[in-house]
Amino acid sequence: MIFFWRDEPATIEERTLLGELHAAHLISSYRNNASSVAVANSAGGSGNYFQSIASALLTLGGMHGPLFQSYDFLTGKTFDGIQPGWGNSFVKGELDPAWIKVDLFIKEHWPEIHRRIEQKTKELHESGKVVFPNPSIYTAAVALAIRLPRDIVPILFVASRIEAWSDIFLKNRKDF
After folding, report:
1. Cα angle vertex 27, ends 151, 15, to 5°?
2. pLDDT digits (tens, 9 = 90+) for 24-78
3. Distances in Å between the alpha carbon of 2 and those of 67, 122, 156?
4. Do residues 107 and 138 make contact, with C-beta atoms less than 8 angstroms apart?
5. How far apart are CA 34 and CA 75, in angstroms?
6. pLDDT by residue (tens digit) across 135-154?
7. 8 Å CB contact between 136 and 99
8. Which of 66, 85, 166, 173 is spaced 20 to 30 Å from 54 by Cα?
9. For residue 61, which of 123, 129, 136, 156 has the smallest C-alpha distance?
10. Helix, strand or coil for residue 79?
């Protein structure tokens, strides 16, 4: 497998990491998060697939899917206030079980990236904020691991969620 953004073939570790990322995003897609709810609402309101997927995409950034900010953090930028890539509305007080395999695989094969995630998690806990990494930081970590250019990091998020969003669309559209 050759990635379109680089010349050398993907390693088995990179392909495995992408598979784990896809599996974790698939689980996360079926939660009532902003993008999945947007698909469901748009499907019920318009019945238009393109509009429904576009509505999911328009939720990304800011609080939901801060992919660029998470990438920037992992490459050295610091943030005041809310740390992008940490916190989860669905799992509190522990690492989201859907993302454990991704976390462990990054730890084993890209320890320098994982150390940055662990260090920030520890700092947040010590400051009284018991939050854990979320899909955004893991997506950015995978992007760094496979040397994906920053400007197209969202491809990982979208490619991993489009199947679930399509299913959500079909389940929520009304017959027009």
Report:
1. 55
2. 999 999 999 999 999 999 999 999 999 999 999 999 998 899 999 999 999 999 8
3. 23, 36, 16
4. no
5. 26
6. 999 999 999 999 999 999 99
7. no
8. 85
9. 136
10. coil
CB 29 within 8 A of CB 139: no
pTM: predicted TM-score of the whole model, two decimal places: 0.95
Q: How confident is the model at residue 176 (pLDDT cuts 50, 70, 90)?
A: low
Note the helical H segments in the chain: 12-29, 34-46, 49-57, 67-74, 100-109, 111-126, 135-145, 154-172
Helices 135-145 and 12-29: angle between axes, nearest 10 degrees: 160
Given a contact cutoff of 8 angstroms between Cβ atoms, the answer to whether 144 and 75 are in contact is yes
